[in-house]
Amino acid sequence: MNKKTIRIIGVPIDLGQNKRGVDMGPSAIRYAGLSSRLKSLGYAIHDAGNLYVPVRDSLPCESCDEFREAIQQVCQAAYDAAAEVVERNEIPLFLGGDHSLAIGTIGGVTHQEPAGVIWIDAHGDANSPDSSPSGNIHGMPVATLLGEGYPELVNIGRPGAKLAGQDIVMIGIRDLDGGERQWLKQSGVKVFTMRDLDEKGMSTVIREALDLLSGHSRLHVSLDMDSLDPEIAPGVGTPSPGGLNYREAQLLMEIIADSGKLTSVDIVELNPILDHENHTGKMAVELVASLFGKSIL
C-alpha cells in the first residue's frame, strides 16, 4: 500500500438507533490520538472535520423510522464526500457514528468502480423494514446497499444496489435476527461467524475472505467496534458477548494491511458515554494503525 494522504471525516450520526452517545464517537477517536498515530506511520493526514448531522433533539420525531429524511441527507453527504476523496486518490477514513452511515460511505467509494467490503461486526445489519424487530436503520445498511429497503435510502447517490452479495464478506458475526438470518443465507454474502473463527482461527478466516474478494483491486473495511468482546471494548451501544479478542482483531487488521488493497475505512458504533476512560477509543486507534501498516517488527 503506497503511503498517501488519509482524509479523516467524522460522521457523528446517532439517528439510526435508540441509544444516545455514538455521536461523540468521532471526538473520542480523535482524542485518543488518531492523527498523530497515522502520521507516525508516514501518512499525510488531512482532517476534514465532521459532516453536518442535525442534533437528534432538534428533529420533530421520536423514532428511528421518522429520522429517515435526516439519515438520507447525512448519507448523501457521506456519499459525496467519499466519492470526492476517492477521485482525489486519497484514502477516506470515516469516523462514526452509528452504522447507518455506511449506506453513504460505501455507496460513495464505489461510485466510479467496485470495491470488496470486509464487514467486521457482531451483527448482520441486514434487516429490511419488514424484518427488523426494532425499526433501527443502523441494522439495515447491508440490505440497503444490496438494493433492499427504503427506496430513498437504496437510491442515495445513484439508483439501486451499490453492491452484490459476492462483494461482501462478514467477519465476527454472532447476533442475528431471524429475518436477517434467512435473508443472508440467500444473499450471496459470505458470513464468517464466531464459531468459524473458533474452529478455523483468524488467520485462516481472513485469508479465505481475501481470496473470496481477490477479484477486487480495492478493499473497504467497515469496522463496528462491537465486533470486539465487550470485556475489552465496553464503549459500544449494542454489546454482544463472545466477540473478538485483542490479538484476533489485531491480526485481522495486519493481514488486511498486508494485502496492499485497502482504500477506504469506516470505524463505527463507538459510544464514549459507555466507555471507561476512552479505552475503546484508544483501541480503535490501535486497530486503525495496524490496518494502515503498523507492524511489530
Spell out the blueprint of helices and strands.
Layout: E1 5-11, H1 25-31, H2 34-39, E2 44-50, H3 68-87, E3 91-96, H4 102-109, E4 116-120, H5 141-145, H6 151-154, E5 168-173, H7 178-185, E6 190-193, H8 194-200, H9 202-212, E7 219-224, H10 246-259, E8 262-268, H11 279-291
Parallel strand pairs: 1-2, 1-3, 3-8, 4-5, 4-7, 5-6, 7-8
Class by SSE composition = alpha/beta
The overall number of domains is 1
Shape: globular
What is the CATH domain class? Alpha Beta
CATH-wise, what's the superfamily? Ureohydrolase domain
Main sheet: strands, sense, barrel: 8 strands, parallel
CATH architecture: 3-Layer(aba) Sandwich
Q: Counting H and I runs of at least 4 residues, what is the number of helices?
A: 11
What is the element string, with H for helices and E for strands?
Answer: EHHEHEHEHHEHEHHEHEH
Distance between the termini: 17 Å
Strand order of the largest sheet: 2-1-3-8-7-4-5-6
CATH topology group: Arginase, Chain A
Q: Based on DSSP secondary structure assignment, what is the total number of beta strands?
A: 8
Please state the average pLDDT score.
95
Low-confidence stretches: none
Helix content: 25-40%
Kindly estimate the percentage of residues that lie in beta strands according to DSSP: 15-25%
